[in-house]
Amino acid sequence: MTGLRKLAALGLIVVLAGCVRLIPPTTMPVPVPAPTTTPTPGTAALLGLSAGPSVASLGLAGTDARGALAAFRLSCPKLLARTDSSGLTRQADWRPICDAAATWPAAQAPQFFAAWFETARLGDGKTFVTGYYEPEIAGVRNRQPGFDVPVYGLPADLVRAKAGDAVANDNGTQPLGRYDESGAFVPYYDRAAIDDGALANKSLEIGWAADPVELFFLQVQGSGRLRAPDGSVIRIGYAGQNGLPYTGIGSVMRNGGLIGSAPGQYSGSMQGIMQYIREHPEAGKALMHQNQSYVFFKPITGDGPYGALGVPVRGGDSAAADPSFVPLGAPVYLSLDRTEANGLWVAQDTGGAIKGPNRFDSFWGAGDAARTTAGGMSGRGDAWLLLPKGTVKRLTTP
Q1: Which of 64, 74, 182, 320 is the most exposed place for a label (fewest CB within 10 A)?
Q2: Would you state the pLDDT for residue 30?
Q3: Which domain holds residue 270?
């Protein structure tokens, strides 16, 4: 991530039910042929695409447009080298726009979007928007008193099954797990086993945190920072996951009657969930263990955390979307009942809970303000995709 957006109580429940993954690229994408103009089954175009208002009529604010232009420039190398799985755009559609973006004056950012883009509504265009952020927790590189919670790197024995050793996933890939001493493929250690020391003394620690609860929520976000007592910071990013299913503990609490406004109940916000865990240490630990999924990290450097597109995400400018419906790298305009999230965003990330058309997760950056905003963001309203001019006509003309 690199920029940020927001979240409300309901939004936090959704985020905890399926968190955003901030995944640094492990390899450069290989250029592939552009998709055909005919959408394939399951892609965005089959939902129905309709033209929206002109970009000029949106009244883009200068600051908002400048941030979106900077984020869009980061997207361009990916837009020109990857297939749009939504079926809406082609690589060639983006080349003249990216050429123009490279030298466009920041002061005239609203005019850039008006000159090169048209708006389109996907389906009914009704959107639900949550938020996420880059958490910062107390942590150090080398273990010392008060910092006893290991932050693990990716284990070498976490592998995909060889063909025939396990039932394939629904998408055809082999499941993640490990081979035990007998050579049999088995599921990888779950959260409870790892917390109980299954990976101890294997030289996998890339850092040490002070608080297991804070580390749990950093795993939910998928990326973050460790800040040492001397003020030094280690930025860590998503390296992998143990292959076990993600369970949103917010949903577990809601189903158990722990979330609400009655006496003894807690807020559904991140802060409320953390309060419950701290006030009930043993029950809280058991609650966290219901989420068997465990995230592994690696140190990262550069301009902020990376999203699924493989570029740094920017607070207030970048958002997660479902790439089956939204071209990753494309701008989107949001008009919501939460005014702080209104305006231009650039789809540069994905997330486990961010599924379906017109579903977005806004990124808000790092720090206390970002944490507060993301932890309370839940917005509803309308979403307009910004697509290269001519796209709607090409896709809707028989």
Answers
A1: 182
A2: 28
A3: 251-290
